[in-house]
Design goal:
mainly alpha, Protein-Tyrosine Phosphatase, Chain A, three-stranded parallel β-sheet, 7 helices, 51% helix, globular, PTP, Dual specificity protein phosphatase
Length: 140
């Protein structure tokens, strides 16, 4: 999903809470957090009793596979306890798509099938660049 809107950060995070989200994962790099004025996101999430994880990934890039596997292990545990997770980058398709699709693969989906399902749910191609697509196909 795309990042919460800077000018309505608190309102957007409250909307996550109303939609049943229990855990927010931000993939923004520190420079993006500064540029988009998102410094308060973690604190606002906590004020609404939402767990918050910062897992920075460079735009149009892919995460370190071992770090992603660790994150996905934690997310799988959270999901097994009934968590509802929102994953965001800036536009909500590249980095967020890569992480979400990798989590689907961890749950037994084929890479191609997972990308189709995620793209349909988002209403646009996910992930967005060849590097991310190649990463998904090699993720296991």
């Amino acid at each position: 999903m795309p990042k919460p809107r800077t000018e309505q950060l608190q309102q957007d995070i409250f909307s996550y809470k109303e939609q049943g989200v229990t855990h927010v994962i931000s993939l923004l790099k520190p420079a993006e957090i500064e540029a988009f004025q998102m410094r308060e996101e973690a604190d606002i999430c906590k004020s609404y009793q939402l767990s918050f994880t910062h897992f920075p990934i460079k735009d149009m890039d892919v995460p370190d596979v071992s770090a992603l596997k660790e994150l996905n292990l934690e997310l799988k545990q959270q999901l097994s306890k009934g968590a509802h997770i929102a994953i965001h980058c800036h536009g909500g398709r590249g980095r967020a798509g890569t992480v979400a699709i990798s989590l689907m693969i961890e749950h037994g989906y084929d890479a191609t099938e997972a990308m189709k399902i995620a793209s349909k749910a988002r209403g646009d191609k996910m992930p967005v660049c060849d590097l991310q697509v190649e990463f998904i196909h090699s993720y296991h």
